[in-house]
Specification:
By secondary structure, the chain is mainly alpha-helical. It has 2 helices and no strands. It has a domain of 27 residues.
Amino acid sequence: MNQRSLIPMLVLLVLCSLLLVNSQHQARRLFIALEQAQLRQQQLETEWSQLQLEQSNLAKHARIDAMAKSMGMAVPTADRTRYVTVGGR
């Protein structure tokens, strides 16, 4: 092999090496982004579960009843109940 054919081969080798390094860097960057997205997904799922638990606790009948009693509310009696019929009959 002469020196003239070695120079293009050397340039091609360097170019391929640079492309390989670049593709590995891209792969690592994308893998890190994927891990961050998965971590965020886990955090959001945990937060969603906590919010569902909080909502179920806030909607419990015993809690609502206790809050109503603390505000002085009571179940209406029969003499305070009015029934409305259609057509005014």
